[in-house]
Amino acid sequence: MANKMEDRKVLSGSPRIKKVSFLGRVSAVISQHFQQVFTSFSELWKTPIATLMTVFVLGLALSLPSVFNVLYKNAERVTGQWDGASEISLFLNKDISEPRVQVLINKLALYNDIDSVTYISRHQALEEFKEMSSFSKALNYLDENPLPAVLVVVPTKDAMTSAGSKLLVAKLQREQGIDLVRVDLDWIEKLQAILELLVDIVIAIAALLLISVLLIVSNTIRLNILNHRDEIEVLKLVGATNSFIQRPYLYAGAWYGLLGGTIAWLLTVAMVIWLQSGVMSLMGLYQLQFEISLLNFKEVATLLGIATALGFVASYISVKQYLVKIEPK
């Protein structure tokens, strides 16, 4: 009886196990994750030279698709300006009368795909030709003005595409009094074909470079796992779960990707700034007002997000392939 009383006293005096609330468990897990995120970042800089070399290689690989994206985006803007600057010249019959020209102008003004119509008379055309050429004195000896009157048609914005201009030209060719319809769209079509080919090339190069990023990060994480083999074995011996051991390596891969993406963004900006003076000089030759467009916030966020995701996926592949195979002896 005395022994039972003593047992009761011992039991009543023993500390009670407190139940942790759900919010407490969630808070602990989040705190643990944050700790491992920052710990994995500090672990990278224990070998700064190797980390910097890896990050710069990733940045170079990611910067090429980024630079190509900027070049393609600006090339589209340039072709858009050229499309907008394209005009359709209507060379009229020499024997057309002025009243008939006015009727034709009024009719063209009713077209939904024509923005404006400018009339250049035969006399105005001759004077402009004299000013632009070195044959002004020779032209004074001509008995008759050889130049026809011209209507300069500016299409609307919707009709400034290659297909829209072709449709408009087909309609104008059916109008009476027009001898020749002239619009130079061949070079625009060739340029658009080149841009489409460039897009295919960029996609292929980007795919190869993204695969190279996966391989670089995966191999780097694999080396880290092998270098910490003894530490991993000890952690498993003391009962650490696989997820607890894996997380620092997964976060390290994500850090590699994020840092590589940041380097790629900086390299892209530097490359565009370096090319800006040459591009501006080229645009000046074509009398175009143009300013190079850099990566916007959405594009930068996309670049960093893709880079971080690639690093995470690459580290996940290495972790699943190598870390789970390590078992304490």
From TrEMBL:
Major localization class: membrane
Membrane topology, as annotated: Multi-pass membrane protein
Domain ABC3 transporter permease C-terminal, first and last residues per copy: 204-322
Location in the cell: Cell inner membrane
Keywords: Cell cycle, Cell division, Cell inner membrane, Cell membrane, Membrane, Transmembrane, Transmembrane helix
Domain named FtsX extracellular: residues: 87-181
Source species, domain of life: Bacteria
GO BP annotations listed: cell division
Keyword Transport: no
Membrane-crossing residue ranges in chain numbering: 49-72, 197-217, 263-288, 300-319
Family matches, as Pfam families: FtsX, FtsX_ECD
PANTHER family according to UniProt: CELL DIVISION PROTEIN FTSX (PTHR47755)
Subunit details: Forms a membrane-associated complex with FtsE.
Function: Part of the ABC transporter FtsEX involved in cellular division.
Family affiliation: Belongs to the ABC-4 integral membrane protein family. FtsX subfamily.
Protein name, as recorded: Cell division protein FtsX
Annotated organism of origin: Psychromonas marina
Gene name per UniProt: ftsX
